[in-house]
């Protein structure tokens, strides 16, 4: 008989923890779900009466939160209390790439995970199931186990000690479609070695996920599957992006090529959209992680193979920016470039690793003036992203980059427009009006292949489309 879970705690109220727990609470009204975070501002935003102010923007999330919040979904900064109460604790804190020391720029920084483990060990007075939700390098469960079992007031294994079961339950939701993905996941993956603990978590998901879609494996397979899934998806994007450059040279259209190969059922149509480069908190980090692990086992060919996916992505961002400079008569110094989009993909306010950041940085090095419009990303976030790169001082970033909340203002008197995110609204703009506002010749660099090429050409734009080339 597996233990019936009545209280869940989730440490980390971010892009993964927030939406995932909101949906668990929505689908399991008999379970009390408390999401805790040390970031008071974030928790206050999750509790805001105004659902438009939730810290994570995801279509449909406001409805889910409205339904469950205050009923069986709670957001709090009282971490110890929530740990103490819960039978099951999800760890969903951030695991950024290390920026210092051993494994710098490659390995995942596990310090936040370790802090959580120590806190759980200190607070827990009864048995807990601890679930890894964050993306973690393979064998993190082992580290967690070791901390949980050897620290705390009544170490596990000792007489009277508490028992910790560790499960790996990677999240596969994609931002922008998080609620949809959580409601109808392709699969839920649970790795563990204690069948009772596994069953307890299966029972939570079984509230709404069909049994056939809940896969169970050992911990290591589960951890490695998460990295592998992201590596394969990113590899598809880099593969089509590599072809996008060849298409531009040969006169093929990458979108036609993608359609032609995507109909092969062995290849499939998804993740074949050429772009200015993939971003997001997972792809780069997870591949770097894979590369680091492979290297640490001396598997250099394996490491080099996957590293190439990142190198291709860096090249794609760079060549997009390069092409803007070349096309604008080899200089963008003092020229106004309007950025449409800053988020790493549409329907999210997340900007982590967004291609826009790197394209902007490159153009700023060429002394361009950039005006950004994104429907969901704040000015504060855009400056924070640029400052984080440390390429120039904060004052300079604010001098060279302006953020506006109106696309027509962004394009007014611009030399060029660069489309960095595939927001739907970009297609619906009054492009005649934009053409009239811009300096001539009016250049558009569509890094997402979303605009109507023929229509724009007819207005008089000089247009470049990723994977198609210039067709002004
Ligand atoms: C391939 C293409 O599939 C086909 O569409 C094209 O027209 C010609 O090239 P073919 O080479 O006949 O066809 O066989 P395929 O089934 O693709 O296998 C190619 C090789 O890959 C074989 O050696 C096969 O054993 C190997 N393979 C295939 C794997 O090792 N693992 C797999 O998952 C699939
Ligand atoms: C990804 C995985 O899809 C998800 O399963 C995992 O849980 C987290 O990482 P996410 O990063 O949120 O999700 O979004 P995703 O849709 O995968 O897009 C990642 C990046 O690739 C975006 O920048 C997107 O624009 C880009 N992309 C995606 C392309 O450029 N072309 C494509 O065809 C698909
Ligand atoms: P993800 O995309 O993985 O959800 P985020 O950065 O959006 O990543 O969210 C992670 C959250 O975890 C942040 O809000 C951060 O404040 C929180 N966090 C990190 N460490 C701890 C900790 N020790 N206790 C509680 N919350 C934490």
Automatic annotation (TrEMBL):
<dbReference type="InterPro" id="IPR014026">
    <property type="entry name" value="UDP-Glc/GDP-Man_DH_dimer"/>
</dbReference>
<dbReference type="InterPro" id="IPR001732">
    <property type="entry name" value="UDP-Glc/GDP-Man_DH_N"/>
</dbReference>
<feature type="domain" description="UDP-glucose/GDP-mannose dehydrogenase C-terminal">
    <location>
        <begin position="338"/>
        <end position="453"/>
    </location>
</feature>
<feature type="binding site">
    <location>
        <position position="352"/>
    </location>
    <ligand>
        <name>NAD(+)</name>
    </ligand>
</feature>
<dbReference type="InterPro" id="IPR028356">
    <property type="entry name" value="UDPglc_DH_euk"/>
</dbReference>
<dbReference type="InterPro" id="IPR014027">
    <property type="entry name" value="UDP-Glc/GDP-Man_DH_C"/>
</dbReference>
<dbReference type="GO" id="GO:0003979">
    <property type="term" value="F:UDP-glucose 6-dehydrogenase activity"/>
</dbReference>
<feature type="binding site">
    <location>
        <begin position="93"/>
        <end position="97"/>
    </location>
    <ligand>
        <name>NAD(+)</name>
    </ligand>
</feature>
<dbReference type="Pfam" id="PF03720">
    <property type="entry name" value="UDPG_MGDP_dh_C"/>
</dbReference>
<feature type="binding site">
    <location>
        <begin position="273"/>
        <end position="279"/>
    </location>
    <ligand>
        <name>substrate</name>
    </ligand>
</feature>
<dbReference type="InterPro" id="IPR008927">
    <property type="entry name" value="6-PGluconate_DH-like_C_sf"/>
</dbReference>
<feature type="binding site">
    <location>
        <begin position="171"/>
        <end position="175"/>
    </location>
    <ligand>
        <name>substrate</name>
    </ligand>
</feature>
<dbReference type="GO" id="GO:0006024">
    <property type="term" value="P:glycosaminoglycan biosynthetic process"/>
</dbReference>
<feature type="binding site">
    <location>
        <begin position="226"/>
        <end position="230"/>
    </location>
    <ligand>
        <name>substrate</name>
    </ligand>
</feature>
<comment type="pathway">
    <text>Nucleotide-sugar biosynthesis; UDP-alpha-D-glucuronate biosynthesis; UDP-alpha-D-glucuronate from UDP-alpha-D-glucose: step 1/1.</text>
</comment>
<feature type="binding site">
    <location>
        <position position="448"/>
    </location>
    <ligand>
        <name>substrate</name>
    </ligand>
</feature>
<feature type="binding site">
    <location>
        <position position="175"/>
    </location>
    <ligand>
        <name>NAD(+)</name>
    </ligand>
</feature>
<dbReference type="GO" id="GO:0006065">
    <property type="term" value="P:UDP-glucuronate biosynthetic process"/>
</dbReference>
<feature type="binding site">
    <location>
        <position position="37"/>
    </location>
    <ligand>
        <name>NAD(+)</name>
    </ligand>
</feature>
<dbReference type="InterPro" id="IPR036291">
    <property type="entry name" value="NAD(P)-bd_dom_sf"/>
</dbReference>
<comment type="similarity">
    <text>Belongs to the UDP-glucose/GDP-mannose dehydrogenase family.</text>
</comment>
<dbReference type="Pfam" id="PF03721">
    <property type="entry name" value="UDPG_MGDP_dh_N"/>
</dbReference>
<feature type="binding site">
    <location>
        <begin position="12"/>
        <end position="17"/>
    </location>
    <ligand>
        <name>NAD(+)</name>
    </ligand>
</feature>
<keyword id="KW-0520">NAD</keyword>
<feature type="binding site">
    <location>
        <position position="266"/>
    </location>
    <ligand>
        <name>substrate</name>
    </ligand>
</feature>
<feature type="binding site">
    <location>
        <begin position="344"/>
        <end position="345"/>
    </location>
    <ligand>
        <name>substrate</name>
    </ligand>
</feature>
<feature type="active site" description="Nucleophile">
    <location>
        <position position="282"/>
    </location>
</feature>
<feature type="binding site">
    <location>
        <begin position="134"/>
        <end position="135"/>
    </location>
    <ligand>
        <name>NAD(+)</name>
    </ligand>
</feature>
<protein>
    <recommendedName>
        <fullName>UDP-glucose 6-dehydrogenase</fullName>
        <ecNumber>1.1.1.22</ecNumber>
    </recommendedName>
</protein>
<keyword id="KW-0560">Oxidoreductase</keyword>
<feature type="binding site">
    <location>
        <begin position="282"/>
        <end position="285"/>
    </location>
    <ligand>
        <name>NAD(+)</name>
    </ligand>
</feature>
<feature type="binding site">
    <location>
        <position position="42"/>
    </location>
    <ligand>
        <name>NAD(+)</name>
    </ligand>
</feature>
<comment type="function">
    <text>Catalyzes the conversion of UDP-glucose into UDP-glucuronate, one of the precursors of teichuronic acid.</text>
</comment>
<dbReference type="Pfam" id="PF00984">
    <property type="entry name" value="UDPG_MGDP_dh"/>
</dbReference>
<dbReference type="InterPro" id="IPR017476">
    <property type="entry name" value="UDP-Glc/GDP-Man"/>
</dbReference>
<dbReference type="InterPro" id="IPR036220">
    <property type="entry name" value="UDP-Glc/GDP-Man_DH_C_sf"/>
</dbReference>
<dbReference type="GO" id="GO:0051287">
    <property type="term" value="F:NAD binding"/>
</dbReference>
């Amino acid at each position: 008989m597996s233990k019936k879970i009545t209280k869940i705690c989730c440490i980390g109220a971010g892009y993964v923890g927030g939406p995932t727990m909101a949906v668990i609470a929505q689908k399991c009204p008999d379970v009390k779900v408390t999401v805790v975070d040390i970031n008071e501002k974030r928790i206050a935003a999750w509790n805001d009466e105004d659902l438009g102010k939730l810290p994570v923007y995801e279509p449909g999330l406001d409805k889910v939160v409205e339904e469950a919040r205050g009923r069986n979904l709670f957001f709090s900064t009282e971490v110890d209390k929530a740990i103490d109460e819960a039978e099951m604790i999800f760890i969903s804190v951030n695991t950024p790439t290390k920026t210092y020391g051993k494994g710098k720029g490659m390995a995942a920084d596990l310090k936040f995970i370790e802090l959580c483990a120590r806190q759980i060990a200190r607070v827990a007075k009864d048995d807990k199931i601890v679930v890894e939700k964050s993306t973690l390098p393979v064998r993190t469960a082992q580290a967690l186990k070791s901390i949980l079992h050897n620290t705390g007031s009544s170490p596990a294994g000792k007489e009277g000690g508490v028992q910790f079961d560790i499960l790996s339950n990677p999240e596969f939701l994609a931002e922008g479609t998080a609620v949809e993905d959580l409601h109808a996941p392709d699969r839920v993956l649970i790795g563990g070695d204690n069948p009772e603990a596994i069953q307890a978590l299966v029972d939570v998901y079984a509230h709404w996920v069909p049994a056939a879609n809940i896969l169970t494996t050992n911990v290591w397979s589960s951890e490695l599957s998460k990295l592998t899934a992201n590596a394969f998806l990113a590899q598809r994007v880099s593969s089509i992006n590599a072809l996008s450059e060849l298409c531009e040279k040969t006169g093929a259209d990458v979108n036609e090529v993608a359609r032609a190969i995507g109909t092969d059922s062995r290849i499939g149509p998804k993740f074949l959209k050429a772009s200015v480069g993939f971003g997001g908190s997972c792809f780069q980090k997870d591949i770097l992680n894979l590369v680091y692990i492979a290297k640490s086992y001396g598997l250099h060919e394996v490491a080099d193979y996957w590293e190439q996916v990142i190198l291709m992505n860096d090249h794609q961002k760079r060549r997009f920016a390069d092409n803007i400079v070349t096309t604008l008569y080899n200089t963008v110094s003092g020229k106004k470039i309007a950025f449409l989009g800053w988020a790493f993909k549409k329907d999210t306010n997340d900007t982590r690793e967004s291609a826009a950041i790197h394209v902007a940085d490159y153009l700023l090095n060429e002394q361009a003036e950039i005006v950004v419009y994104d429907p969901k990303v704040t000015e504060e976030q855009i400056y924070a992203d640029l400052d984080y790169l440390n390429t120039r001082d904060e004052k300079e970033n604010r001098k060279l980059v302006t953020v506006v909340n109106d696309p027509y203002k962004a394009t007014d008197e611009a030399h060029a427009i660069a489309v960095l995110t595939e927001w739907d609204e970009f297609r619906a703009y009054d492009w005649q009006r934009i053409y009239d506002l811009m300096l001539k010749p009016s250049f558009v660099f569509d890094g997402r292949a979303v605009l109507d090429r023929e229509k724009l050409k007819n207005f008089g734009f000089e247009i470049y489309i990723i994977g198609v080339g210039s067709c002004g």
